[in-house]
């Protein structure tokens, strides 16, 4: 059981009144304190919100636009309203965000902001992780990630019907051929049979045997000499 001070409880209760939704599925969030003992990161979060801000120092009027906030979870709180409603909140440290020459977002963990509004609903948070930069110390680049066990199965077809895609064709010029799924006959029955007569070979056509006695190269004179 975690007890909050009056200021934190008031901030959490006010945030729930303005934002209420179900917990985002398939995401495993952990606090930054636990991440310090692990090889993986699970505490990095981002949140997108539409707010009024000044795009640059030259602008005199604020403009309503969608902004992305980058932070890390420091605590996970579940508020139970007499068992009638439960809401999960993330208490986060929000960081100042900058952009390098290549358009990549990076933060400094020692430069924090929005300390008066640290809470965010679990449904509004998206998981991310931070990668340390090599050019500057304490610079961490933010990388968004796909939640674990989440697969993009595509849009489901209506009515459970299966669709088979094929090359486009004109039914008038290319009529559809009926395909018989049964056994295929290897003999054509739509044409008359052709009979070919092949005579049997005669004795004259048979190959002659070779007379080895007449063509022998064996010389009997050698045997006469030995006698």
UniProtKB/TrEMBL annotation:
<protein>
    <recommendedName>
        <fullName>DUF4216 domain-containing protein</fullName>
    </recommendedName>
</protein>
<feature type="compositionally biased region" description="Acidic residues">
    <location>
        <begin position="212"/>
        <end position="227"/>
    </location>
</feature>
<dbReference type="InterPro" id="IPR025312">
    <property type="entry name" value="DUF4216"/>
</dbReference>
<feature type="domain" description="DUF4216">
    <location>
        <begin position="77"/>
        <end position="137"/>
    </location>
</feature>
<dbReference type="Pfam" id="PF13952">
    <property type="entry name" value="DUF4216"/>
</dbReference>
<feature type="region of interest" description="Disordered">
    <location>
        <begin position="199"/>
        <end position="227"/>
    </location>
</feature>
